[in-house]
Design a protein that fits this description.
By secondary structure, the protein is an alpha+beta fold. The protein has helices at 16-24, 46-52, 115-118, 184-219; strands spanning 4-10, 27-33, 40-45, 62-66, 73-81, 88-95, 102-111, 123-126, 130-135, 144-147, 155-158, 168-170, 177-182. Strands 1-3-2-6-5-4 form a six-stranded mixed barrel.
């Protein structure tokens, strides 16, 4: 498999202030781990990392060159960002091999305006924007794309219905809902059904004192 080199430096796992110093110097704390190996604490350049994580490159196959030594195949498995600055805080790299299946989180991109919305007055809702997949490194897709232009109303599209690329398996629940297209009449029925119990509750509450008064009158 073809790998892109990403330079990394080993580090000793320390206190939070040590990680803060690394980030201030333009380095991001990270860890490299996988089957049959001990986890290795490393740091990588934020500039180089952003190139690797550019749009469409989330699962670039990497060779981590740790302290000048290559031969550490990996992909970015997870990363954390600061909620305010959106700067990288930590990266997880997972070891890969040609024949090993890797679980990855891949974005779902839906394109086109469904017929059910355009001409039938339906209401579209995308329920899931990421799916967990299992694939060999060379088969990992960067995105799952689907044209939904031909879908009508009263549709519930599940993860199991997605046509996955060859060599890719679904790791999310098969009945994970990707999107729905419902008719307005159905929406009104659902809203009415939801409102009915709420409307019944005050009536029942009002009826209770009246029933109590009637019972008291009977006793007299």
């Amino acid at each position: 498999m073809e790998l892109t080199t990403l330079k990394a430096t080993s580090r000793v796992l320390g206190a939070n202030r040590d990680n803060a110093r690394l980030r201030k110097a333009g380095q991001i704390p990270a860890v490299y781990y996988g089957k049959g190996m001990d986890a290795v604490n490393i740091s990588v350049s934020e500039i180089d990392l952003r190139k690797v994580l550019a749009p469409g490159k989330r699962y670039t196959l990497l060779d981590l060159e740790i302290d000048g030594k290559a031969g550490n195949p990996a992909v970015v498995y997870n990363y954390q960002k600061d909620a305010i600055t959106q700067k990288f805080v930590h990266i997880d790299f997972i070891k890969i091999s040609d024949d090993s299946m890797v679980k990855v989180r891949v974005p779902v991109k839906l394109s086109g305006l469904p017929v059910g919305v355009k001409t039938q007055g339906g209401i579209f809702s995308q329920e899931t924007r990421y799916l967990m997949l299992a694939a060999k490194p060379a088969c990992i897709p960067t995105v799952l794309e689907m044209d939904i232009s031909e879908f009508g109303t009263n549709i519930t599209f599940y993860a199991k219905d997605f046509k996955l690329p060859e060599g890719v398996e679904l790791a999310s629940g098969p009945r994970t809902v990707i999107f729905t297209i419902s008719s307005k009449s159905k929406k009104k029925e659902e809203a009415a059904a939801a409102e009915a119990p709420a409307a019944a509750a005050p009536a029942a509450a009002a009826a209770a004192p009246a029933a109590a008064d009637a019972a008291a009158a009977d006793k007299k």
